[in-house]
Amino acid sequence: MKPLSVEEIKQIGNIPLNFVIGKERSGTTLLQVILNGHPNIAAPPESRFIMLFYSRYGNKKNWTEKELTNFCNDLFKEKAFKRDWNINKESLLESFITAKNIATYPLLCKIVFYHFAPEKDIKLFFDKNPIYCNFLPKLKMLFPEAKYIHLIRDYRANVVSHRRVFITKQSVDITYRWLQMNKQVEEAKSLSPERFFTLKYENLVREPAKSVQGFCSFFNVPVYEEIASEHTKYVYSSYSVNNNKHFRSVHQKVFTPITSDFVDEWKKILPPDDIFQAEIIAGKYAEKMYEYPTLSSTKLTRMNMFVEFIIKVKYKLIKNTYKIVLSNPKLYIIITKRVWKNF
User: Fold this and answer.
1) What is the pTM of this model?
2) What domains can be seen in the chain, in order of their start residue?
3) Mean of the per-residue pLDDT values for the chain?
4) Is the dihedral of CA 233, 238, 240, 245 positive or negative?
């Protein structure tokens, strides 16, 4: 791509950076691929660099060329960014240096997003990260113009999807995380409801054209219904060439046409005891907030206090682990390379 001018970089800074949020295994990657098919939207694959490097660069006011070079180098140490974004490092650094006198951390992040799809007439950027549910106040501070798509999926179907691709078998742990992550989003939504577009996964796969109409209207961009019906055309090239077995199993739905065949599969394959336990944890909230009816015929009773205590502790450990690791880039790199490759 041709070098950017300072004026062009200022225009990039005016493009809103928005977010797709929701519990993992809720269709967030599918939605991101659909968004990226829009000619006015740049919606790259998932990378956590915004929060990962915030502690190091987020509050920096006056950037030197050395600091811009360090930030660029750090970006390419993040596994998902390096593997999936296909950005030319030299070109990106050149844009950073051009922006030196007006650089802020949010502006540099937007420059990165622009470099993902410089050929487009971009009106919106979208970042997709399920764990960003834990960082909504910080995202609001960094990008006050941001709007959010909150994607929700039936918690019992979420359990089945988790079990299909990950080692975990504990329905209670998965359901409790579903509950708490959605509660965090709803708390943020209550403060700025006009900034949130709520979309149920079930509606996305049953009525994809209507869903596209809905979020295009919300974000004030032209409607292109085919970005859902033909979404496989817009799968990231880096995804298409990635033949890793685990990667393919995690993201298999983005490679096939949208179908609603799996919406209710949990009713057939999730054991009654697991359904019952999940409904004890999230049933009342899910029915009230999202109209997911409970199936258990007996009255739901309070879970054993010890079991409840254990799942709450596990959730807090997971949540705090993410917060600690994402504020320490060196620790993050070590964990993703050597300890917990799926972190």
Assistant:
1) 0.94
2) 6-339 (3.40.50.300)
3) 93
4) negative
